[in-house]
C-alpha cells in the first residue's frame, strides 16, 4: 500500500468525528458501525484488500471514539467536546504514533469556515432502521489546502443533538449522519451505517493507552503523505 493512502485515512477520520456535548437522557449513547466501500476505485485487487472495510464509532455523553483497523494499520480517534480536544492513535506495522489537536488549533480551523453550507433536500433513505434525510454539505478541507469540498450525507434526526459535531465536516448538522460520501486525494469513500446500538458507555472506553510517540500532523504528512512512494 502506498504511504499517501495511509495519510488519506488519517486525514479523513480526523475531519469526520462526531461528538455529543449536551447532557441528558435524550443524548444518544452507544455504538454505530459503518461499512466502507470505494466507488469508482482504480486500485488493484491487492491494494483494495488492504483498505479498511469497517469503522466503529463509540459515543458517550461528551466523548467519542472512532476505530478503524486493516490488520497492517489501525487508527483510533478520541474526541472530547468538553475539553474541545482530539487525539488520534495510529499503529502502522508496529510503529505507534499519537497526534493531538488542542482547543486552540481546533478553534483556528473552525474560524476558517465557521458556518458550512448545509442544504437539506426532500429525498430520504432507510438506513440501519432509521429514516434519513439527504444533506448536501459545502465546506472547506484544511487537509487539502482549505479547498472547498462537497459531501453528500444522509442523516437522522432520531439520533439528534443540537450540539453534535462541534468540529469536523459535519458541524451544524442536526442529527447523526448514517451515510456519507467523501473524496480526498482522488479516493472516494462511501460510509454506510450497518448497525446502531443504544447502550451504556463507560468512561473507561475513552482511556488513552500508553506506548505511543507523539508527533504533529505536519510530521505525519511528511511520513505518509510525501510523494506517494
How do the strands and helices of this protein lay out in sequence?
Blueprint: H1 3-15, E1 30-37, H2 45-50, E2 54-59, E3 63-69, E4 73-80, E5 85-92, E6 95-101, H3 103-112, E7 117-127, E8 130-141, E9 147-156, E10 176-184, E11 187-198, E12 213-215, H4 217-225
Structure description:
It is a single chain. The chain has 4 helices and 12 strands, in the order αβαβββββαββββββα. A 12-stranded mixed sheet has the order 7-8-9-10-11-1-2-3-4-5-6-12. A hairpin with a 2-residue loop joins strand 5 (85-92) and strand 6 (95-101). Helices cover 17% and strands 44% of the residues. It starts with a helix and ends with a helix.
Features:
single chain, 229 residues, alpha+beta, twelve-stranded mixed sheet, 4 helices, globular
Number of strands: 12
Largest sheet geometry? 12 strands, mixed
What proportion strand?
Answer: 35-45%
Name the average pLDDT: 81
The amount of helix comes to 10-25%
Model regions low in confidence, pLDDT < 50 over at least 5 residues = 19-25
Q: Tell me the structural class.
A: alpha+beta
Q: Helical element count?
A: 4
Lateral arrangement of strands in the main beta sheet: 7-8-9-10-11-1-2-3-4-5-6-12
Order of helices and strands: HEHEEEEEHEEEEEEH
- Between the first and last Cα atoms, what is the distance in angstroms? 9 Å
Overall body shape: globular
Radius of gyration: 17 Å
Amino acid at each position: 500500500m502506498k504511504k499517501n493512502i495511509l495519510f488519506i485515512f488519517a486525514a479523513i477520520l480526523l475531519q469526520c468525528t462526531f461528538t455529543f456535548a449536551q447532557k441528558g437522557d435524550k443524548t444518544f449513547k452507544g455504538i454505530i458501525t459503518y461499512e466502507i466501500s470505494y466507488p469508482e476505485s482504480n486500485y488493484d485487487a491487492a491494494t483494495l484488500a488492504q483498505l479498511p472495510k469497517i469503522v466503529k464509532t463509540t459515543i458517550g455523553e461528551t466523548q467519542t471514539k472512532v476505530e478503524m483497523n486493516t490488520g497492517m494499520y489501525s487508527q483510533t480517534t478520541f474526541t472530547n467536546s468538553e475539553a474541545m480536544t482530539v487525539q488520534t492513535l495510529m499503529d502502522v506495522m508496529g510503529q505507534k504514533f499519537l497526534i493531538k489537536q488542542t482547543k486552540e488549533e481546533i478553534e483556528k480551523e473552525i474560524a476558517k469556515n465557521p458556518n458550512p453550507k448545509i442544504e437539506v433536500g426532500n429525498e430520504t433513505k432507510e438506513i440501519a432502521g432509521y429514516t434519513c434525510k439527504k444533506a448536501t454539505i459545502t465546506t472547506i478541507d484544511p487537509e487539502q489546502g482549505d479547498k472547498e469540498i462537497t459531501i453528500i450525507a444522509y442523516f437522522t434526526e432520531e439520533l439528534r443533538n443540537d450540539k453534535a459535531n462541534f468540529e469536523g465536516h459535519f458541524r451544524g448538522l442536526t442529527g447523526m449522519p448514517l451515510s456519507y460520501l467523501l473524496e480526498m486525494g482522488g479516493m472516494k469513500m462511501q460510509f454506510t451505517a450497518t448497525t446502531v446500538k443504544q447502550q451504556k458507555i463507560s468512561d473507561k472506553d475513552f482511556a488513552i493507552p500508553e506506548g505511543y510517540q507523539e508527533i504533529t500532523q505536519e510530521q505525519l504528512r511528511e511520513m505518509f503523505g510525501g510523494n506517494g512512494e
